[in-house]
Amino acid sequence: MDVRTCLRLIRRHWWIVLVTLMVAVGSAALITVRTPPRYVASVTFFVTTPSQGVTDAYQGGLFLQQRVKSYADLLRSDRLAQSVVAETQVGLTADDVQRRLSTSTETGTVLLRATVTDTDQTRAMRVTETLAAKFVELVQQVETPAEGRAAPIKIEVVSGPRVSSSPVSPQPTRNLIVGGLVGLLLGAALAVLRGLLDVRMRDAAGLQRVTGSPLLGEIPFEAGAKAAPLIVGDAATSARAEAVRKLRTNLRFVDVHEPARVIAVTSALQGEGKTTLSCNLAIALAEAGWRVLLVDADLRRPKVADYLGLDGGVGLTDVLVGDVQVGDVVQRWGDKSLLVLPSGSAPPNPSELLGSKAMADLLLALRESADIVVIDTAPLLAVTDGVVVAVQADGALLVTQQGRTSRTQVAAAARSLHSVSVRLLGCVLNMTKVAKADAYQYEAYRLATTGKTKVPADRAPAARHGESNGVDGVTDRTQELTRLRR
Q1: Are 102 and 117 in contact (CB under 8 A)?
Q2: I need a labelling partner for 71 at 20 to 30 A (CA). Which of 56, 65, 114, 306 fits?
Q3: CATH H-level, domain 39-163: superfamily
Q4: What is 173-237 written as a DSSP string?
């Protein structure tokens, strides 16, 4: 995993970083507020030797440095702590004094520093003053020879005792900065971990890798698409409509040597937008002048007729059982060359009906009656209906909603198509998040071109091959098929 991937995951899960940062800073502030202030009192001793005794300066220096290390331990001795407690009477025990006391020496010198840290400024000063006096007395007692000669070591106080006028801890600025840095690092780590553990389909590259098919389109998410799913009216100039047109172009040129005329649109799960995409793709193809027939083959949860505002009571199911002719139930939608075959009444055996010879013969007739047939099918992982229809089509288009379907589910859907040798034309990542910069550029370009003159209606693209775009062509083909059956 490279740095770019980490940054992408952090950007995607920025809210984790923000929450972690706020929690860390808040915790640091709470700790700072609840921590009692602490004051430091210090005193510095200078260790020397009289001119009598050690005469060699170098050896004398080494001797004193060794003695200073011993004096640091002597400062923390039980004997000295007990004498300080007995002298000060400040309510501390010998252990309390030892815990509050710290010593330090500077390498190569004969300076010894003692520091007392306490929440009470006055008590810290008093303990330090007593400690300095008692320590000098103790050293003199320890170092004085028994014969009464002068002591070879002399201790002098050269600095202090003094106490800090302001608390040395807590330090609010430092604590908040440290808390912020810890929060950022921890938040970034959690964001990357969250991204690595996320199994949902997030990007186009992952969708192509899992399905093993080209990406034909990315349909952006629009808040108003739920109320107005079709790319007509004001929605015809939206970024979503432009993405569908791009899908139309890519789909027509995905294989120029073997173009797909019967296309099954499916998805791994329900609710990924396959029906909306089927309707919009059919509308976009009809706008380009193609004779398009949209078939609702999702016999369990049909939605095409509802989206297009058509009557779906009679349709595909009734044609397959032989109750009506296809030409009698195909409906024209709008003023475009778009014909719609609704699902019809709900059958008790959808899979068997869609896999019957009647369905195969119907698709053969529809193939000859329209330039392109778009079939909306059932989700692949829910039921087998989608695979049954896709086998009879020229190819399938797999729709996946960004951030909803897992990679495992998409892979299972692709395998279900490949296992029966279905030609997977490509995949579509639906409801994608568009960067604000990209959305702004498209909107600016759209507004700049809205004032241009539109193409007159009489110069619009005509139907291909000079054939009629009406229902009559479908009716003639169906009657011919009926005669062949007899």
Answers
A1: yes
A2: 56
A3: EIF_2_alpha (3.30.70.1130)
A4: HHHHHHHHHHHHHHHHHHHHHHHHH--B--SHHHHHHHHTS-EEEEEEP-GGGTT--SS-GGGGG
Give the pair of three-digit tokens for residue 177. Answer: 């900065």
What digits encode the pLDDT tens for the residues 219-263?
A: 999 888 888 899 988 888 888 999 999 999 998 888 777 888 999
Q: Decide: residue 350, CB within 10 A, 0-12 exposed, 13-18 middle, 19+ buried.
A: buried
Q: What CA–CA distance (Å, rounded) separates 57 from 48? A: 11
The rounded distance, in Å, linking the Cα atoms of 244 and 282 is 10
Q: Which two tokens stand for residue 75?
A: 């400062």
Mean pLDDT value of segment 310-320: 91
- Describe the crossing of helices 57-75 and 121-143 by its angle, rounded to 10 degrees: 130
Residue 332 to residue 341: CA distance in whole angstroms: 9
Q: State which CATH number among 3.40.50.150, 3.40.47.10, 3.30.2010.30, 3.40.50.300 fits the domain covering 204-485.
A: 3.40.50.300
Rounded distance between C-alpha atoms, residue 41 and residue 121, angstroms: 8
Q: Does the pLDDT of residue 150 top 80, yes or no? A: no
CA dihedral 57, 60, 65, 69 (to 10 degrees): -170
What sign has the CA pseudo-torsion 109, 110, 116, 122? negative
Cα 77 to Cα 281: distance, rounded to the nearest angstrom: 88
Other CB atoms within 10 Å distance of the CB of residue 291: 24
In this predicted structure, what is the pLDDT of residue 145? 64
Q: How do 331-332 and 395-401 pair as beta strands?
A: unpaired
Position 3 confidence tier, pLDDT thresholds 50, 70, 90: confident
Position 35, amino acid: T
Instruction: Judge residue 455's burial from the number of C-beta atoms within 10 Å of its C-beta, 0-12 exposed, 13-18 middle, 19 or more buried.
Output: exposed
Q: CA–CA separation, 260 vs 274, rounded Å?
A: 18
State whether residue 434 is helix, strand or coil: coil
Sequence-ordered list of residues with C-beta below 8 angstroms from that of 62, at least 6 positions apart, any chain: none
Is 378 strand, coil or helix?
coil
* Cβ neighbourhood burial of 185 (10 Å; 0-12, 13-18, 19+): middle
pLDDT at position 476: 55
Q: What is the pLDDT of residues 46-71, one digit of tens each?
A: 888 765 444 455 566 677 777 788 88
Other residues' Cβ atoms within 10 Å of the Cβ of residue 361: 16
Spatial contact of 220 and 240, defined as CB atoms under 8 Å apart: yes
Under 8 Å between Cβ of 365 and 482: no
CB contact burial 46-77 (16+ within 10 A = b; e otherwise)? bbebeeeebeeeeebeebbeebbeebbebbee
